[in-house]
Amino acid sequence: MITNVARGVQAFTSNAFLVEGERTVLVDTGSNFDVVERLRDRDVDLDAVVLTHTHPDHVGNLGAVKEAFGVEAWGFDTDQPGVDHAIEDGETVQLGDDAYVALHTPGHKNDHLCFYSSGAQVLFAGDLIFQNGSFGRTDLEEGDRNQLIESIDRVKDRVDEHLAEMYVGHGPSVTTNPYQDVELAGRAARMR
Q: How far is CA 179 from CA 30, 33, 56, 125, 127, in A?
């Protein structure tokens, strides 16, 4: 089961997805809200935090979650504060009950990862791709439009039209034909 524990937060935050199952994981921690209380209200036994990238809106609550639940954080770059273990490009990680392949997808930020499960037909897209073909900003430090386009293309080549659900860093998740949103993002990112 995948739940956005940041749902309804009015402050600036990313989405924070609780993936429950054999390995209960929080994908991104969000910021500017009490995620620990929301997790405790759900009575979860958290095993780890997995990060799509380390922009402040995605990791603002990282320290609090690690301290409250005694868990470690996994991300692409262990040089980033709070990241305890590296996830390599192409590595398989367990989120909930499913295996996901980690895809290094820079362009929005150098340490950006997407996670795709072909078995579950689920994509965690972070800030690479959003609903309706929107895509991540490239005007921040480490942003690069050409890299972003390459990363979107890489995801598009990995997933297919059977993609059932796409969980994004901001805004609503996509559960109706998310492959179309991936294709749209690739086209939109090419428009200057």
A: 25, 31, 28, 12, 16
What tokens were used for 10? Answer: 């009015």
Domain limits for position 158: 2-190
pLDDT tens column, 136-159: 999 999 999 999 999 999 999 999
The radius of gyration of the chain from alpha carbons, rounded to an integer in Å, stands at: 15
Please tell me the number of Cα atoms within 13 Å of 86 on its side-chain side.
8
Q: Per residue in 129-161, is it b (16+ CB within 10 Å) or e — as a string?
A: bbbebbbbebeeeebebebbbebbbebbeebee
**Confidence tier at 122 by pLDDT (50, 70, 90):** very high
Report the CATH number at residue 94.
3.60.15.10
The values of phi and psi at residue 51, to 5°, are -110, 135
> What is d(CA 39, CA 37) in angstroms, rounded to the nearest whole number?
5
pLDDT digits (tens, 9 = 90+) for 18-58: 999 999 999 999 999 999 999 999 999 999 999 999 999 99
